[in-house]
Amino acid sequence: MRGFRAACAVMLWAMSAVAAAGEAVVVKNVIGTELNGYVAGPENSPVGLLVLHDRWGLNDAVRATVDRYGNNGYRVLALDMYDGRSTENERWRADELLRETDREMVKSNVLAGLRYLQAPNRKLATLGSGFGGWQSFQAAVMAPKQVVATVVIDSSLDADVEQVRSLEGAVMAVFASRDERVTAEMREEYRIKMRKGFITYRPHVYEVDSGFMDLRSPTYHFATAETVWQEVDRFLLATLGK
After folding, report:
1. CATH T-level assignment (fold) for domain 2-240
2. Cα–Cα distance between 27 and 62 in angstroms, integer?
3. Rounded to whole angstroms, how far apart are CA atoms 54 and 51?
4. Which tens digit of pLDDT belongs to each residue from 156-184?
């Protein structure tokens, strides 16, 4: 049943992207390294969205997300943080790719993505789940004056009090109540930090296990995933006006 629901989810996302497909793009980071990416949506859009991939890499599911938001009027970019490597269904390979990743380089690449999306009077947002959620929050921490909205799904919010206080955009965080890595105590700490920093913070906690958004995870939860995407759409609309 889980496999059937996952297949249905993929089909729904693919159908939402039928109107127009994105295209491959090359983006350079600050040291001149070329990054492969995928971009969609109108070039003159007033809103830009940086989609950060999870442990699986820049695969078809990520491209479908880019296409979906591109068809909704966003200028959307996803960058390949694995230098051309990815896997569709081998969890051991995905975990290996994640371990081999230089997170400081990833941060540099995230900033390159934001620079690519920058345009006069354009509002920027970031979105990611799992490893992508970590990247999404780091984008807000590193570029607080640029990022207006941040969506972090199934990930921790790694930042100290001063970094949180520097944030200027709104933050939506989605947690799994049974996630042993992000406990109830940690979620409360995040809430307190955000309150002290006067940050617009929208936490959501669902009675599921970590991996609930990951189509390839045994803990993927179709109904919760659908609800989360609806909440994300509402958050982005309220924050960006798109």
Report:
1. Rossmann fold (3.40.50)
2. 17
3. 10
4. 999 998 999 999 999 999 999 999 999 99
Q: Where are the domains of the chain?
A: 2-240
Q: Can you list the pairs that 167-170 forms with residues at least 24 positions away whose Cβ atoms lie under 8 Å?
A: 167/140, 167/141, 167/197, 167/199, 168/144, 169/125, 169/140, 169/144, 169/200, 169/239, 170/199, 170/200, 170/201, 170/202, 170/235, 170/239
CB distance 70 to 40 below 8 Å:
yes
Rg (CA), the chain: 17
pLDDT in tens, 111-162: 999 999 999 999 999 999 999 999 999 999 999 999 999 999 999 999 998 9
Sheet of strand 75-79: strand arrangement:
23-28, 34-40, 75-79, 47-52, 123-129, 147-153, 170-176, 201-206
C-alpha span between 28 and 35 (Å, rounded) = 6
pTM of the model: 0.90
Backbone angles phi, psi at 181, to 5 degrees: -85, -30
* CB contact burial 29-67 (16+ within 10 A = b; e otherwise): beeeeebbbbbbbeeebbbbbbbbbbbbbbbebbbbbbb
Helix or strand holding residue 28 (H, E)? strand 23-28
Tokens 């206080």 locate to 165
Query: Does residue 64 sit in helix, strand or coil?
Result: helix
The one-letter amino acid code at 56 reads W
Contacts of 203 (CB under 8 A, 6+ apart): 172, 173, 174, 175, 187, 190, 191
Question: Residue 129: in which H helix or E strand, if any?
Answer: strand 123-129
Give CA–CA dist 135/45, Å, rounded: 23
